[in-house]
Amino acid sequence: MGDSRLEPLVLTADERRTLENWVRRRSTAQGLALRARIVLACADGGPNIAVAARLKVNRGTVNRWRARFLADRLDGLCDEPRPGVPRRITDAQVEDVVVKTLEQVPDGATHWSTRDMAAAVGLSQSSIVRIWHAFGLKPHATEDFKISTDPQLIDKIRDVVGLYLAPPTNAAVFCVDEKPQIQALTRSAPVLPMIPGTPERRSHDYHRHGTVDLFAALNTATGKVIGKVTARHATADFVAFLTEIDCQVDADLAVHLICDNLSTHTAPAVKTWLLTHPRVALHFTPTYSSWLNLVERWFAELQRRRLDRGCFCSTDELTCALEEWIMLWNTNAKPFRWTRNAEQIIDAIGHYCTRISNSAH
């Protein structure tokens, strides 16, 4: 048998493609990526000593992986099973943990903890952690869901998402909603500022100085916001906000407003106002689907960056802070980008409904 170091190394198209993928992917183990580079370099021609110098590895390393590849092809580059400590946890014990986690609860509790499960099955707490991690089980975690019962769910999703992804020409599209009952709060003790090693600290209790409501209309194309702070969010206030939007939008543009199903948005006074302003059209999200309204994403930014840690001694101070936030936002506004089309959303809702309908609960 000839010397493998001198035997020509020829790759098939599939082998070369696989090796190149191993080199390119960040998820590939470092050792496997190096072996793939060695084989590719050998296939390009040249003696092993030249390949070793080019890749800055030992010549023996090139000899070994070249020979392994010639003997077993791609399988020869993968690590062989290594000896280790025999398993002390059997498959039956693992199955018992998974079944108990999914189908039972401990006495007097609503879900398992690692300590409760370890005591119930006779394993260590760390073993329970590893088993749960391997099977993606998180008994401590919970999520809420609400499926819309709107009979026009599909039509409304297509309507709203269509405005995001393919807005009509010569038109402005706004996402409109109100953030009610914004509280003007001050803490019962002064806020302790952040110092190295210690975050900012605030007292848990607070003093309330009244509330205001914020109407907001987010322009989906520019990201700019038209805002109006009021003492309440009655129908008359919403009509006044519609008039504000109508005044600020160019007269030669049609106006499409995406709203939720609040009764204020469908009141007779609003319908009368729409009859006198034919260029304005309202589009409604499905019930229980406020996530479909992009202005909710802007409200989240407002809450996180201005309200959560703000202290306001009066509603006037809170109103000034909200108006200043809107002005600063519009100075460097960027639109939120909607990425999923209507069919993807409808399919996802269908898959989720099928999943919860076929569950064992």
From TrEMBL:
Source superkingdom: Bacteria
Q: Which InterPro entries match?
A: Homeodomain-like_sf, MscS-like_channel, RNaseH-like_sf, RNaseH_sf, Tc1-like_DDE_dom, Transpos_IS630-like
The species this protein belongs to is Catenulispora yoronensis
Domain annotation Tc1-like transposase DDE: ranges: 174-318
This one is known as IS630-like element ISMsm2 family transposase
